[in-house]
Amino acid sequence: xxxxxxxxxxxxxxxxxxxxxxxxxxxxxxxxxxxxxxxxxxxxxxxxxxxxxxxxxxxxxxxxxxxxxxxxxxxxxxxxxxxxxxxxxxxxxxxxxxxxxxxxxxxxxxxxxxxxxxxxxxxxxxxxxxxxxxxxxxxxxxxxxxxxxxxxxxxxxxxxxxxxxxxxxxxxxxxxxxxxxxxxxxxxxxxxxxxxxxxxxxxxxxxxxxxxxxxxxxxxxxxxxxxxxxxxxxxxxxxxxxxxxx
Length: 246
Prior knowledge:
Blueprint: H1 2-21, H2 33-57, H3 60-95, H4 101-138, H5 142-173, H6 184-204, H7 211-240
Helix pairs in contact: 1-5, 2-7, 3-5, 3-6, 4-5, 6-7
């Protein structure tokens, strides 16, 4: 009974602080309504296609794996971003003319600080939980053990909520890297989606259905995301004069 009563105010507080620290509207340096509309349409189409494949060809175990795959993506996507973003940023720095690099480097610092804050919060969750378990188990007094558990449960829950709300923002805004280069979020998204597809294939295997449906489900999602990302880069070049070498 105590947990739901404690969780609601902690969730509200964590959500407010996560949105203050990582603004959810900080999505694109150059907002393009048509690109955003295409992204939403692609996302809904992928969701409907996945649901239809599960309904027609899926088994009970396939439905159970959907939630596991969703949680896996939430947990692993920020870490993939941390590993992938430096490589893509380095590529953009190499493509950019020398005169543009100092400005890009100065705009990179807020994105780095955002990433460091996020991963500090991610690291704090298991550390606080381990501390709570250790102190409660090593305590000689039952009353003191319960007190320690209740005292540390609040920060563990608050930090967990903070990480969840921050993850939904940071995965969408790609740590605010559009300030470094307007095309950087599209490039990172195009690379990240193929990495996630490879990990999902290694962890869960092929989707259900006949071979042709499996191939379409496996490649269609990443290919459509990459197509929209490339279209965004093309519009940035043609409409706003933003080039990968600019």
